[in-house]
Amino acid sequence: MAQFNVATVSRLLRAMKLARPRLVLSGLPTALKYLVIFVFFLNIRSWPLGWHIRIWRPAVWLRVRLLLVNLRSSVYSKDKSQKIEDKWFESVSQLGGNPLDVTSHYRTWASLDDSDFNGHLSNSSYAKTLDAARFKAAIELFPLLFRETAWIPLAGSYFHFIREIPMLASYEVRSRIAAWDSKWFYIVHRFVSKPKKGGRPKKQIKQMPRPTVLPSLRTVSGPEETSANDTPVDSVPETSTNATLRSVSNIIAAVEPDGAILHTIAVSQLCFKFGRITIPPSVAFAVNGLTGLDSSSNPPPHWDKVRELAAKEAGGSRKKMAEFLKGGWRNVPEGERWWEQAFADVAERNAANLKDVELLKMGMDGARQVEIHTT
To answer: Which of 272-276, 304-308, 349-353, 360-364 comes out lowest in average pLDDT?
Structure first.
């Protein structure tokens, strides 16, 4: 008898649990019911795995395209199939592009779940959107690197908020490499939107000269303030930190070529890794076909060297390229390092940009030295 009662109660509880959502919806007026469903779908980007889908979408799409190429070439011999795959990777790389000029575009909108109670894109959503924009840029710029299972860790990101992005507004993140050294490379991201037709033109942020002093957290009197009409308040004294942020914004012109409105500037500090081994940025750029040489030749002059490492047709292989990325580049004599020669024409421009972006890193490193008082 006790078993019968327990089984009966269990069935009743399960039936009540399944019927509960139906009872809630059926008890609501029709208009309110549709409003609840509408709001639920408005927040679809915050559903479980929503962030992962946005992040991995460009990588999955690249993998699907590669799969289709492999399926079409499966009727051929193994050698010919490998050559077809090598050619395809060359076709999707930025062959002959200047790393300081190639721009990646990530388009999205300020959804309800990404906005705050002020009706603007929330501060945390800038970082969430930047994850997707940064990953898309990496896939577009370095497909040959990911082919060899290399990866790109993020060391830091910095934001400079200029104008708010209204809720439900469409905007775009434009990402471009700003500079690099022997280990790190820096990407400047610009959050922009297209101006409304017939709307009042936004006032441009005044460009400032490069700072001549290093940032010091002890002398900062406060963050940059802006008035309601987006005009900087002249009464706020210019500090070294403010000058640093403005100097970074000068790396890419504040006035967009297409007249887009600038909302926020972000800087990402990254490096390339193969396992735990660091790959110099110039090596990673060069093996993906990027070059700084002022030449109209495409592919660039150093591409034959890359093909000797990676392309089966030129005597290369994926294993050979992997060994090179793991540290084989160290065995190349100083005067024969073609990846360094590939960027000789942009060395001065890179050095000037590097000086600016490194000020941000130095400022944050200085924050570690600020004394913390505990009570």
So the answer is: 360-364
DSSP one-letter code for 155: E
Helices (H) and strands (E) in the chain, counts: 12, 7
Token pair 């403010």 is found at: 242
Q: Is the pLDDT of residue 12 over 70?
A: no
For 287, the token pair is 């093996």
The CA distance from 187 to 357, in Å, is: 9
Residues forming a β-bridge with 218: none
**CA distance linking residue 263 with residue 257, whole number of Å:** 15
Beta bridge partners of 267: 158, 188
How far apart are the C-alpha atoms of 58 and 68, rounded to whole Å? 15
Kindly report, residue by residue over 323-345, the tens digit of the pLDDT. 999 999 999 998 899 999 999 99
> Angle between the 347-367 and 240-249 helix axes, to the nearest 10 degrees?
140
Q: Are 111 and 43 in contact (CB under 8 A)?
A: yes
Q: What is the pLDDT of residue 184?
A: 96
Task: Name residue 36's amino acid.
Answer: V
Radius of gyration of the chain (CA): 26
Separation in Å, CA 110 to CA 89, 142, 144, 340: 34, 28, 33, 41
Q: Crossing angle of helices 50-73/78-92, nearest 10°?
A: 140
Percent of the chain with pLDDT over 90: 58
Q: Helix, strand, coil shares of the chain as percentages rounded to 5?
A: 50, 15, 35
Range name among 112-126, 172-186, 198-212, 240-254 with the lowest pLDDT average: 198-212
Q: Which residues, 6 or more positions from 193, have their beta carbon under 8 angstroms from its beta carbon?
A: 165, 169, 170, 171, 172, 260, 261, 263
pTM check: above 0.90? no
Packing angle, helices 50-73 and 123-141, rounded to 10 = 10
Order the strands of the 170-180 sheet from edge to edge.
103-109, 170-180, 185-193, 261-270, 154-161
Give per-residue pLDDT as tens, 250-277: 555 556 788 899 999 999 999 999 999 9
